[in-house]
Request: fold
Amino acid sequence: FSYLDSTVGMSNVLVILTGDHGVSPVPEVNVKRRMPGGRMPAGIVRKAVEAALNAKYGDGQWILSGADVAPYFNQDLIRQKKLDSAEVERTAADAARHVPHVFRAYPGDLLASGVAMEDHVGRRVMNGFYAPRSPDLYVLLEPYWLYGTGGTTHGSTFSYDAHVPVIFMGPGFKAGRFNAPAAVNDIAPNPT
Reply:
């Protein structure tokens, strides 16, 4: 700020502070506060999905890569067994939904078709989906539940992850707190 003030003057500078995501509270802290949440053991969703696919379609290496939240399926195996990939994804999603503390499971074909946009959660999942690179299944845990053994993360669709501050400082802005809805892309200048 000192450099900007000395070179162009702070009366000619607009400062915007924001973030690209929020963050989930640490589950251990929430438990101490008697709030909901917890940790999912790593691999629990993957094991449930693999067991369901093995039971319905026969043994195989169904999941090639990806964490519990976003597995990629073995498309060669699906073709070899002459299966419909959308049906395999739906079977996997159904298995994932039966794991305790799984909030929703979205098959990739559902996301690709746009059907998942029934509410704000589905819309947010859809906004993060890109068919050529996205996983075949997206598993969303209940609010304040995380995978893994320590720390925190981000990436859910819940407000604590999606809500970020947008702070403007500079000429033309009235000091104060404004609670009107805004999106981070509202920061972009309007060409009109």
Summary: The radius of gyration is 22 Å.
